[in-house]
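S2.1 Query sequence (CRISPR-associated protein, Csd1 family)
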Amino acid sequence: MILQSLAKYYERLRSEGEIRVPEMGFQEHPIPFIIVLNREGVFRGILDMRTGEGRGLTARNFMVPKAVKRTSGIAANLLWDNPAYVLGCPKKDERKDPNKALKRAEQQHEAFVEEIRERCRSVLDDEGVQAVLRFLEARDFSAIYQDPCWPEIEKTGANLSFQLEGDWGLVCQRPRVQEAIRATCSQGGEPRQPCLVTGELDVPARLHAPIKGVRGGQSSGTNIVSFNLPAFWSYQKAQGANAPVGGWAEFAYTTALNTLLAKDSGRRFQLGDEITAVFWADKKHRMEEAFLELFGEVPPENSEADCRELVSLLKSPQTGIPPDLDPATRFFVLGLSPNAARLIVRFWYAGSVADLAAKMDRYFEDISMVQPKGELRYPSLSRLLGSLAPQRDKGKLPPNLGAEFLRSVLQGLPYPKGLLEAAVRRARAERGVDYARAALIKAVLVRQARVCGKETKEVGMSLDPGNEYVGYRLGRLFAVLEKIQEEANPGINTTIRERFYGAASATPVTVFPHLMKLKNHHLAKLENRRRVTHFERLIGQIIDGLESFPANMSLAEQGRFAVGYYHQRQAFYVKPETEEKREGRDE
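Output structure tokens follow.
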């Protein structure tokens, strides 16, 4: 299912033409330096195709023949490669025997020349191919070694390719050469078999192209399909023959996935340091643009109005479908993480836009929380996860927590228990609750109550004076006691929150009797007697019917404590003057 969806996405990219994707047998690859030859194969110079300055230099991408997959053996790319293959000049390495390195480089160079002769057999009369072969067969590279670019090439082992003087592109991009390359891709001496992806007869790919762009993966790329050891083989079938994926399907799915994983694709985001997620639809849809902004890193310039517009877009399949939306469009989300030379599929979602919109609508309902001024109504997934990590470093999150969270959102499942544990633990460690953490705790509690079919109302998005949960009431009480202390001591740097939040949320009986006595001292310092009356009445309403402070509270109650504290604090900021005027009228 995953490979089929990726292969179809490649077909979509080819048909739309908005993103340049290679044809079968080709790939985009950075080529820092180009060797320019005249039609007689005489060296004319080296073009530096890098842009930027200093360490920020980046090479330009070119459409070149698909790279071979290398292990420890010698395998040459066609008409482009590193200096060892192109010129027989190994990269300098003090750790290696120079004689052995030079001998191996000579073998690599011979393989490079032979690859051109073999793959370009039908176009040996092409001017570009002739020039390259004449240059290589002459074995006189002294002019290259004198070029100003050579020291950098020798030092870094940068890739090289060829260009014919007067041409606009590389030799490998000449029309006849490209036709020859495509022809060699469609040929094969091995018998055709039904492809597991397309179901059509094709020659199975022995090795699959590496996947690049997954954070933490090898720089050379990792594989999502691989049978690289005899222990993985069966029925005497070697490597890719154990799960026959045709050559076209292999090229299509690897190209599509590498395109999605590109840094500027707009179709990827990170869940901590472990998991890289990509997403796409089977045809162009506005959901693709909305998904990244809602679940990835929301740019700081995005306003709350922008987010509300996106939320309206997601709800539209339920409230009325705009003409440019098709709720039946298929949508896919794939989460990957590296493991040595392979990729692990952490989660996979495949559904319709309508189904996804319903799941996301429920998710936004879960996390809806009264927000401070300047905050977005719906914090991004990255922001929520960051609120659980020390110093907001998402790399320090518990393993797989981000993947389990997103899977719960996409599939409408209960949120992982570890989410509430992490949020409560971080609240106690930092002695407080911010907007994102409160929204996350509320979402976990609300969804768990819904799944369990509880009739008792859980916490809401704003202050709920009628909430009877002990944890919620004590959270409110703690916020009131802190507010009294702040008004009694204007400009105070350290409040009861810094000293007692952790104990108050977990073992109330050890803290609240002392705090209730302390608040009498603080109330006595207030000159505004209306405020004193207001606070005493508010405390009375909160603890009404509460016989005693519990010795300890469960994890869920600690979560309610955090939300109750946050709600009450926000209530103080919203309409303090109105409440005071009302108290005056009551007197």
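The longest strand covers residues 342-352. The longest helix spans residues 98-119.
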